[in-house]
Amino acid sequence: MKSFTLPQTSLTASNIILGLMRISDLDDGQIRELVGTARDAGINFFDHADIYGGNHLCERRFGDAVTFTPAEREEVIIQSKVGIRDGFWDFSKEHILSSVDESLAALRLDHLDVLLLHRPDALMEPDEVAAAFDVLHESGKVRNFGVSNQTPPQIELLKRSVRQPLAINQMQLSITHAPLIAAGVAANMAVLDQSIDRDNGVLDYARLNDITLQAWSPFQKKFFDGVFIGDRENYGPLNDALDEIAAAHGATPSGIAVAWITRHPANMQVVLGTTKPERVIESAAGSDIQLSRQEWYRLFTAAGHTLP
Ligand SMILES: NC(=O)c1ccc[n+]([C@@H]2O[C@H](COP(=O)([O-])OP(=O)(O)OC[C@H]3O[C@@H](n4cnc5c(N)ncnc54)[C@H](OP(=O)(O)O)[C@@H]3O)[C@@H](O)[C@H]2O)c1
Predict the structure, then answer these.
(1) Is 205 labeled as catalytic in the residue annotation?
(2) Average pLDDT of 118-143?
(3) FRET pair for 211, CA 20 to 30 Å: which of 146, 157, 204, 283?
(4) Where do the domains of the chain lie, and which CATH numbers do they carry?
């Protein structure tokens, strides 16, 4: 398992993260097995959000099931998010502070290692966010901060007010949903939709500003519509390529789909969403696979992206 010091922080993080969005129906034993398998595979980073399961439910299930000794707590990085509410988004100071308190109670922890602003709130007041972050940082409740699904100008706007570094931007990325990579590859091609920049250059901005990108939904075809692995009807050439490259590396297609993301020189992290320990193992194995340029581009084009 590759790990690295997250730029702008003192955290040593695995480049694979276990996401806990889908654990609400697991029992305590299943959650412990999932988390224990991830730890055994070298994963030390766990991703939550107040909204997962609705009203802190997944955080509560995790807190009920998993107890860390003080030494273990030092080894793991617990991240959560705030900002998505029932029918609206909310980056107000009052909501950020109360939601973090509820997250800590649900997780049974005294601090979060990382807090992300989940999706850009159109009504955001940067000074209010800054005031909330100051309270959370000074009280020791949150040690590091970042964002999710935000464009470079949105981050720049926040940075004018927020005093703490914004170290992370969590974005959707898989081989089949890769606009943040594919647009740059097809820059300035008027005849290609792929050329449309949907995120204001978030990939290059992150690299230029030492912001770590975390890739969510690494196996989903598009937006929560099932996985491309094994979907031969819609992704035949991609599955052929995944199978052949997996065989060449002694891995599985899931491991190769992860390796496609970690091969990118931006040093991204991959947020796994599986609830199956065996899938954690095969996916985490992708961290140690170094795809060749030819393999990486073969997967990219087999998924339907164009090299103009
Ligand atoms: N920041 C954001 O806006 C945002 C949005 C969404 C998610 N996230 C984070 O990202 C994490 C991952 O998202 P995700 O769950 O959508 O990612 P994902 O890992 O692409 O998808 C997981 C889902 O795909 C299934 N799956 C995985 N591999 C499979 C395979 N080989 N064959 C069949 N089914 C397979 C899993 O089923 P099994 O459980 O049965 O394996 C699970 O239902 C979440 O847990 C959350 O932490 C963040």
Answers:
(1) no
(2) 98
(3) 283
(4) 3-302 (3.20.20.100)
